[in-house]
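Anyone able to model this chain together with iron/sulfur cluster?
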Amino acid sequence: MSEVKIGKAPEGSEGPGYFLTSLDKIVGMARENSLWPLPFATSCCGIEFMATMASHYDLARFGSERLSFSPRQADVLMVMGTIAKKMGPVLKHVYEQMAEPRWVMAVGACASSGGIFDTYSVLQGIDKVIPVDVYVPGCPPRPEQIIDGILRIQHLATEPLKRRSSEEYRRQLAEHGII
Ligand code: SF4
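re: yes, here you go
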């Protein structure tokens, strides 16, 4: 016998009646549940990302299974791995090619702060070249942590205009010389 039980629908979500909402909330909800990540994976943290995409953790449950390898069709830049200083301008170029609204996730210690590679050649955190919205700690972070990062980006995605027009975001773009 099947052990699957059908749960009760939340109150107010079925039966006769109607909902009132606003267009920006509907758009925010759609955007939140269909984020298209661009995986910028350079080393071991990328392997954890592969596990996050695979069947056990299955990022598709959060609407983010459609990866984009074109910055023009992505809204979340996920940076995973060690970023050499020489790659900084490349990363910034990728970010600049993304349309607004866009978000950035630094996955793991290397992307967040250079990690254990406190050397002349490694960028000590991607926030030296682009604004970062969510930092995921760990070396490497577990898939659960990467999923937690996606959930935090989803939370931000419900109100993209609020963030985009904020003084802080504009200050960060100006600081990095991004128009
Ligand atoms: S944070 Fe750790 S696991 Fe991730 S890329 Fe750096 S060294 Fe590798």
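The first helix runs from residue 23 to 32.
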